[in-house]
């Protein structure tokens, strides 16, 4: 079953996004990936862990942290 990994990472410009996408494409066993520039969020699905995605992004100099779903309590 595919995992959905969401991480927060600084997406400052188009060059940053290109660099991030290039690094993510190299991860084995990913099915899909997406970047949400407004939320500074990278979403990867596949046989991958949050730690793997963060490690790959850190290798290219990006500070990535697990995405926290902080929704207000109703």
From TrEMBL:
This is HMA domain-containing protein. The keyword Acetylation does not apply. The keyword Repeat does not apply. It comes from Phaseolus vulgaris (Kidney bean). Residues 2-65 form the HMA domain. GO terms for molecular function: metal ion binding. Keywords: Metal-binding.
